[in-house]
Amino acid sequence: MTVFCLGSINADHVYQVPHLPAPGETLAASAVQTGLGGKGANQSVAAAKAGSVTQHIGAVGADGVWAVDALRGFGVGVDHIRTSDAPTGHAIINVDPQAENAIVIFAGANLDQSAVDIQAALATGGAGDWVLIQNETSHQVDAAKAARTNGVKVAYSAAPFDAEAVKAMLPFTDLLLMNEIEAAQLSDALGVKTADLPVAKVLITAGAKGVDLLDTKTGEIVSNPAFSVDPVDTTGAGDTFAGSFVAGFEQGLSDVDALRRASATSAIQVTRVGAATAIPDAAEVEAFLSAQ
């Protein structure tokens, strides 16, 4: 079985700053770290480190060979990553001492996907497989339709939030992942309650308050509290959760076990600086859970 991920690939430049900059303010950073990021790349790495066979579908520029190599090094399949004429995407991330961040993203090659390549990648999937999609690339709906054609289930991480993008994806989505702010924005935009959305399951994260998984057919809600940790950098925490959780579904874990493992994975990740590079492997997560 496989987790596919149509997703962004970025170079993350993470700056440790005394506070998030105000308009017109120039700040001196105390440290900088550059590494692999992008919501899609983070999700792929999380799924692979959780133990799922993972195939990334995406694009980089000619300057992005290092990013493809990094994904490969994390155990992610890279055969479906194309080289674009556009530069590789990148992000400027400011992180304050309370682990809050402010991020500027340049999409670059992430918006230069190929419908033909996406369809070819998902044609290798089938029943039991999942594809994880978010809003940092083009061709999300194409990917969802191709997945459904081949029996692949669709998990959609509705971020960065765009109401129109979500509306287009809902008819092809099996699992919708949002944070509590995005869920409120979607309810306002569509004029419907979360429980009435036309998807089988909705996962809503609420940071330190934990996470809820709603079955829209039965109305059942499965919850998991957040683990108590001292965060250093929250960049990529939601992506880490999403990738780990979908991997749990692909591996046949129960809702409760998938939520617990994903919560532990993101809890460990935020205690480290960086995004993809900070994601723990399965052994670390199991050790963490055993100690709880």
UniProtKB/TrEMBL annotation:
<dbReference type="InterPro" id="IPR029056">
    <property type="entry name" value="Ribokinase-like"/>
</dbReference>
<dbReference type="Pfam" id="PF00294">
    <property type="entry name" value="PfkB"/>
</dbReference>
<keyword id="KW-0963">Cytoplasm</keyword>
<feature type="binding site">
    <location>
        <begin position="38"/>
        <end position="42"/>
    </location>
    <ligand>
        <name>substrate</name>
    </ligand>
</feature>
<dbReference type="GO" id="GO:0004747">
    <property type="term" value="F:ribokinase activity"/>
</dbReference>
<keyword id="KW-0630">Potassium</keyword>
<feature type="binding site">
    <location>
        <position position="272"/>
    </location>
    <ligand>
        <name>K(+)</name>
    </ligand>
</feature>
<feature type="domain" description="Carbohydrate kinase PfkB">
    <location>
        <begin position="3"/>
        <end position="281"/>
    </location>
</feature>
<keyword id="KW-0418">Kinase</keyword>
<dbReference type="GO" id="GO:0046872">
    <property type="term" value="F:metal ion binding"/>
</dbReference>
<feature type="binding site">
    <location>
        <position position="274"/>
    </location>
    <ligand>
        <name>K(+)</name>
    </ligand>
</feature>
<keyword id="KW-0119">Carbohydrate metabolism</keyword>
<feature type="binding site">
    <location>
        <begin position="205"/>
        <end position="210"/>
    </location>
    <ligand>
        <name>ATP</name>
    </ligand>
</feature>
<feature type="binding site">
    <location>
        <begin position="238"/>
        <end position="239"/>
    </location>
    <ligand>
        <name>ATP</name>
    </ligand>
</feature>
<keyword id="KW-0460">Magnesium</keyword>
<dbReference type="GO" id="GO:0005524">
    <property type="term" value="F:ATP binding"/>
</dbReference>
<keyword id="KW-0547">Nucleotide-binding</keyword>
<comment type="subunit">
    <text>Homodimer.</text>
</comment>
<feature type="active site" description="Proton acceptor">
    <location>
        <position position="239"/>
    </location>
</feature>
<dbReference type="InterPro" id="IPR002139">
    <property type="entry name" value="Ribo/fructo_kinase"/>
</dbReference>
<protein>
    <recommendedName>
        <fullName>Ribokinase</fullName>
        <ecNumber>2.7.1.15</ecNumber>
    </recommendedName>
</protein>
<feature type="binding site">
    <location>
        <position position="233"/>
    </location>
    <ligand>
        <name>K(+)</name>
    </ligand>
</feature>
<keyword id="KW-0808">Transferase</keyword>
<keyword id="KW-0479">Metal-binding</keyword>
<comment type="function">
    <text>Catalyzes the phosphorylation of ribose at O-5 in a reaction requiring ATP and magnesium. The resulting D-ribose-5-phosphate can then be used either for sythesis of nucleotides, histidine, and tryptophan, or as a component of the pentose phosphate pathway.</text>
</comment>
<comment type="similarity">
    <text>Belongs to the carbohydrate kinase PfkB family. Ribokinase subfamily.</text>
</comment>
<feature type="binding site">
    <location>
        <position position="179"/>
    </location>
    <ligand>
        <name>ATP</name>
    </ligand>
</feature>
<dbReference type="InterPro" id="IPR011877">
    <property type="entry name" value="Ribokinase"/>
</dbReference>
<feature type="binding site">
    <location>
        <position position="239"/>
    </location>
    <ligand>
        <name>substrate</name>
    </ligand>
</feature>
<comment type="pathway">
    <text>Carbohydrate metabolism; D-ribose degradation; D-ribose 5-phosphate from beta-D-ribopyranose: step 2/2.</text>
</comment>
<feature type="binding site">
    <location>
        <position position="235"/>
    </location>
    <ligand>
        <name>K(+)</name>
    </ligand>
</feature>
<dbReference type="InterPro" id="IPR011611">
    <property type="entry name" value="PfkB_dom"/>
</dbReference>
<feature type="binding site">
    <location>
        <position position="136"/>
    </location>
    <ligand>
        <name>substrate</name>
    </ligand>
</feature>
<dbReference type="GO" id="GO:0005737">
    <property type="term" value="C:cytoplasm"/>
</dbReference>
<dbReference type="GO" id="GO:0019303">
    <property type="term" value="P:D-ribose catabolic process"/>
</dbReference>
<keyword id="KW-0067">ATP-binding</keyword>
<feature type="binding site">
    <location>
        <begin position="10"/>
        <end position="12"/>
    </location>
    <ligand>
        <name>substrate</name>
    </ligand>
</feature>
<feature type="binding site">
    <location>
        <position position="269"/>
    </location>
    <ligand>
        <name>K(+)</name>
    </ligand>
</feature>
